[in-house]
Amino acid sequence: MNATQLKFNNEVVVKYGNTVVPATGKDEHVNYTVTQNVKHGEETDTFDVSFTNVKDLKDTDGNAIKVAAGGTFTVDFTAELLSGAVIGEPGNPNESRLEYSNNPNGEGTGHTPWDKVVVFTFKVVANKKDDKQQDLDGAHFKLEKWDASLKNGKGDWKPVGQEITTGHKFEFSHVDSGHYRLTETKAPDGYNKVAPLEFFIKATYDTDSINPQLTGLKVVDKNGTELTDWTAATVGGTVSTDVVNKQGSTLPETGGMGTTILYVAGAVLVIAAGVWFGLRRKAFAAARRH
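The structure assignment produced for this chain is given below.
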């Protein structure tokens, strides 16, 4: 793990099948140890997980975890992307391998080939323009990602980074595939705000390769149709679009105060007309009686 690109979060979860294997079981029984920054010759491992005897594992209640031929161990951990992370190709690699010995009376160990995983991250860029395609300062933008886990599984928008309030080129780094919303929270003086832009970043990878690569990057709508007003590049990992503002004042929204006033004024006119018509009929009837 490259220390300038990824930061280990100091949490490791080991499982055998679907059973979580604690580092220390009941009565301080040690199943495995996690050691950070282990040197191996000229290289340093971010962390090592070491088992003394996989046939002597116990859960938190002290019960034996039976390991059989063909069983599978998994080691889960998380890492944080740092500011030095590479955006787009060639990505941020992380490698692991298994070192083992099946002869406790012998010396030396064997190991599997390195297994390489590459973490890819991208950047969203909004270029603020006027209707003559000239750069335009004075806008504010925020980017959000749809997170289905929020609000008890109902989903909600989650901010991506901070709102940007300067310049005419708005860059949001360290995004991945998913559903996003770009919102202009403030338009330049004298210009109208544009409606929020919803889009999906879709990336494809060669996951079967020894050296995984980013094979495609595009921006699509909810139906999977590619959006032609966006550009995407695997090298540099950037998806970008021009956001154009037009000058002028905005009309009142449907159902807003402006239309309410019109509706009230209209009602008054109808009522007044009804009263006038009624008075006319009364006056005409009185004339005929005389």
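Interim note for the steering committee: Helices lie at 150-153, 257-289. DSSP finds two helices and 20 strands in the chain.
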